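FAQ: What does the model actually see?

It sees only this:
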Amino acid sequence: MAIGIIDIQITDTISFLLLPLTYSLVIGLILYLAKPVKWVGPEQAKVAEGVMILLISILISKLAISIGQSIDIIFHVGPALILQIFGDLGTLIALPVALLLGFRREVIGMTSSICREPNLSIVIDKFGFKSPEAHGVLAIYVIGSIIGTPFISFLASISVSLIPLHPYAYAMASGVGSASMNAAALVPLVHMYPSMATQLEAFAGCSNILSFCLGIYMCIFISLPLAEKLYTWLSPILGKGKAQIEYDEEYVPDESIDDDSIDKLNFGKVKRWISLLFAFSVIATVGNVIGYHTSFVDSFIGMVIISLVAFIGMCLERIFPVHIPSIIYISLIGLFIAVPGVPTSGFVTHYVSQIEITTICTAFLGYVGISIGKDWEDFKKIGWRGIIVALIVIAGTYLCSATIANMLLFITGTI
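And it is asked to produce this:
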């Protein structure tokens, strides 16, 4: 946060931003990989990954409160917000490129989605863990975990300079179904259009929730079948060479991490959550004061409100017998307490508005950088061809969603 945002001007009209969240991720990764550093290793990476669900809840909480503040405009642009999710099919643009690069059936897994956790489970469940399709989705998952966040942040900042779409459209497009990528794509927009910050956060948060909720059905019923069809049609024409991704047979995703996502509520868990949320709130508050010169007390109160919403949502998921993901509870609570007219609205929005989304992302991505260090060897196995495909997959879904959203905003007269 002390380094701040660096605006790199390429031409008079084209520029991109280097953001604190990118520095934080890179520093975390370097600390893990640097051999002289003994106090950041596999155990710390496991802990960092284990607390990820809690830290993601804080991001969702902040965005949910912004949704509540902007509920009127959310309803006004509803069709664009819902239908832009079809931009997720933009990942299929990468399929012919992957075939030309020499991949075979791996392309079905690689290009059917942005390849986050729900998509990973769908492909593995359908084709089996040792299938080429599973190898493909795992490859994009690993690449996305390591370079997806800084890449989409760069993509967002340079797209705004190059492609004249409305900021609302770009905000909606940032909801790709990954909390870290969602935030990373949003931060450059908030920096470029500070007067629209609350609305942009609202659209980005709402879009990401829709991607979480509907993206899995999009993958099952539309994009995965389409990827299989496209492979059948195009592989005889474009399929050349062999660039298959090999994983060790014993490789399986680490399921031993205590991410608190399944276990029931107990006193030890509650105590751990409170400790982590308090520590994270202090870190984010200090970062906010350093980066934006806000009041320490006001910033800390804002972080406590955000953390409390996340905490209640996490608890409710484990209290009720019917399983409803904590993201739903957090989104509804955050939205409700910030809706204009609700007694809590003025208090909540005053203090939470003191917290910049950049600050939360910067603190969060320090943990991400440490946690992805353990995937570095798998990343190196994938090679440059897989990286090219992954970047096209991310760019495809982001730019297609932004284009669809912009068209619908124009058609409905919003812009």
